[in-house]
Design goal:
The chain is an alpha+beta fold. A hairpin with a 2-residue loop joins strand 5 and strand 6. This is ArsR/SmtB family transcription factor.
């Protein structure tokens, strides 16, 4: 594929609008939202939101799925999520994920969703423990789960248990990789393994999602589990 300056300008224009940026940041939690919900987030009318969403869909940044009487919007791909996370890492200021923002919103820095996987202080510390124990092994462009690592991670529960029992049918980087954390500037676990780990933590009630926000709240059982499994003092 040949990339041109026009391609970059086109994507930049889509992301660069304040209302569209607010919608995209909301969708970074990995969930799907209606136009009305995204209009509320962006502070615009539903009619204006629909115009913005149509442009994002035409630009292949979002997809819309009809369910019953509603249409739900989500990021079009993991590549779009990676692009947005990359922009956040290099931005001087953003409303949701910078060092300055994390000082005013410490819970966001501690634990949040980075698209569909776990990010923040806890995510980086967990990843450090997994790498240090040899459960994850870095390779060029991706990470591998060792035999011992698979046995350890299966104990975290579903859906991670089931994922690690199945043969790998996707590209290695899609299955397991590091993702540079935008506040900690160090990698946390991403890919299908990272997504399943977050889902397992939520299923275990170790973490709870906050409606309409990327922040994740650590529960008392979660604090005990992170100390027992990863020696994390939370």
């Amino acid at each position: 594929m040949v990339h041109t300056s026009g391609s970059l300008v086109s994507v930049g224009a889509l992301v660069g609008d304040q209302a569209r940026a607010a919608m995209l940041l909301q969708l970074m939690d990995g969930r799907a939202y209606t136009a009305t919900e995204l209009a509320r987030v962006a502070g615009v009318t539903p009619q204006t939101a629909s115009t913005h969403l149509r442009r994002l869909i035409e630009g292949d940044l979002l997809v819309a799925v009809a369910q019953g009487r509603h249409r739900y919007h989500r990021l079009a791909s993991h590549e779009v999520a990676d692009m947005l996370e990359g922009i956040l890492r290099v931005a001087d200021r953003t409303p949701s994920c910078t060092v300055s923002a994390s000082r005013s919103m410490p819970a966001l820095r501690q634990a949040r969703s980075c698209y569909r996987h776990l990010a923040g202080v806890h995510a980086v510390a967990i990843t450090d423990r997994l790498l240090g124990a040899g459960h994850l092994v870095p390779h060029e462009g991706h990470w591998q789960v060792s035999v011992e690592g698979a046995a350890f991670l299966r104990e975290l529960g579903q859906p991670l248990t089931e994922l690690l029992r199945l043969p790998v049918t996707v590209k290695p980087a899609r299955y397991c990789r590091g993702c540079l954390d935008c506040t900690e500037r160090r990698p946390h676990l991403a890919g299908l393994v990272g997504e399943a780990m977050l889902d397992s933590f939520v299923s275990n009630d170790w973490l709870r999602r906050v409606e309409g926000r990327r922040e994740l709240r650590l529960t008392p059982p979660g604090r005990e589990a992170l100390w027992r499994l990863f020696t994390l003092a939370t």
